[in-house]
C-alpha cells in the first residue's frame, strides 16, 4: 500500500533521466559542471562587488525605476522550475541563457575595464559551460530545443554613463539569479 501511495507523488516530481541516474559518465558531468557553475557564480559575485565599490550601486531595490527603462532581459529558466521538469528543456534553457549572458557581459567589460581579465574569463567560462551542456545533450541523445529569446533581444544601448552603470549592475544581478537556478537544477539531477 505504501508503494502505491508513493508512486503518484514520485510521478509529480518528474524524475527526469532516471535511467541515467546511475550512469557514471552522466554523474561525473553533473558534478564537474556543478563545480564549474559555482566558480562562475563566484566570479559574477566578484564583479557585482566591483560595481558596488566603483559606482556605489549595491541595492537592487534602489534602482528598480531605472531598470524598467533599460529593458535588460532576464534569460528564462521556467523549464528548470516546473513540477514536470524535463532535463532536455532545462538543459536547452541553461545553454541558451549562458549564451545570452556571455554576450551581455560585453557591456560589463566596457564598464569595468580594470576588471577586463575577470570579465573575459567569465565570458569564456559561460561559453565553455554552454558547450559542455550541448555536448552532454548530444552524447545522451537528448533532443536539442532552442527557445525563442524573450524580452527585447540584443542588449539595449545606454543613453548615459549612469544608465550603463545600472545596466551593468542588472546584467550581473540577472546572471547571478540565472546561475543559482541552473545550479539547483544540476544539483537536482545529481541527487536522483
UniProtKB/TrEMBL annotation:
GO biological process, one term: immune response
Record keyword Disulfide bond present: yes
Listed SMART domains: IL6 (SM00126)
Cellular localisation: Secreted
PROSITE patterns linked to this entry: INTERLEUKIN_6
Domain of life of the native organism: Eukaryota
This protein's name: MGF factor
Species per Swiss-Prot/TrEMBL record: Rynchops niger
Gene name in the database record: Mgf
Amino acid at each position: 500500500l505504501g508503494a502505491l501511495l508513493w508512486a503518484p507523488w514520485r510521478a509529480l516530481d518528474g524524475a527526469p533521466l532516471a535511467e541515467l541516474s546511475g550512469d557514471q559518465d552522466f554523474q561525473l558531468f553533473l558534478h564537474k559542471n556543478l563545480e564549474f557553475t559555482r566558480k562562475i557564480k563566484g566570479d559574477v559575485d566578484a564583479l557585482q562587488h566591483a560595481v558596488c565599490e566603483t559606482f556605489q550601486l549595491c541595492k537592487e531595490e534602489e534602482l528598480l525605476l531605472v531598470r524598467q527603462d533599460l529593458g535588460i532581459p532576464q534569460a528564462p529558466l521556467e523549464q528548470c522550475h516546473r513540477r514536470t521538469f524535463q532535463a532536455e528543456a532545462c538543459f536547452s534553457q541553461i545553454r541558451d541563457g549562458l549564451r545570452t549572458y556571455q554576450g551581455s557581459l560585453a557591456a560589463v567589460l566596457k564598464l569595468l575595464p580594470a576588471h577586463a581579465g575577470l570579465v573575459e574569463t567569465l565570458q569564456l567560462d559561460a561559453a565553455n559551460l554552454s558547450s559542455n551542456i550541448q555536448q552532454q545533450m548530444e552524447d545522451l541523445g537528448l533532443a536539442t530545443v532552442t527557445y525563442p529569446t524573450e524580452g527585447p533581444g540584443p542588449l539595449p544601448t545606454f543613453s548615459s554613463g549612469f544608465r550603463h552603470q545600472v545596466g551593468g549592475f542588472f546584467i550581473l544581478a540577472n546572471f547571478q539569479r540565472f546561475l543559482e537556478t541552473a545550479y539547483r537544477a544540476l544539483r537536482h539531477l545529481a541527487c536522483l
